[in-house]
Specification:
Helix content: over 70%
Order of helices and strands: HHHH
Largest sheet: none
Shape: rod-shaped
Distance between the termini: 59 Å
Length: 84
């Protein structure tokens, strides 16, 4: 029979595994969005300079998604990154 401390330890391990999986999924979504946005920006505006690449790498998933939305209407690369 499990002791109280073993039950809590096992619960903590399960919780940690779940959190790790969720973080992995989120990171995978970000990497996928980063890859797709980089491809689309390059196709539309040509090769991306190091500053733009660094900005994309440092962005959150929410930022990448917002920039992808703006890409549809932007006439310039600068317009993609402008705050609204």
């Amino acid at each position: 029979m499990e002791t109280w401390s073993e039950r809590h330890l096992n619960k903590g391990i399960r919780q940690g595994r779940l959190e790790g999986r969720l973080e992995g999924l989120e990171e995978g979504r970000k990497e996928s969005a980063l890859h797709m946005l980089t491809r689309l920006l390059s196709k539309r505006f040509g090769p991306l300079d190091e500053a733009v690449q660094a900005r994309l790498q440092a962005a959150s998933l929410a930022e990448l998604e917002a920039w992808a939305d703006r890409l549809l209407e932007a006439d310039t690369l600068a317009e993609v990154f402008q705050m609204q």
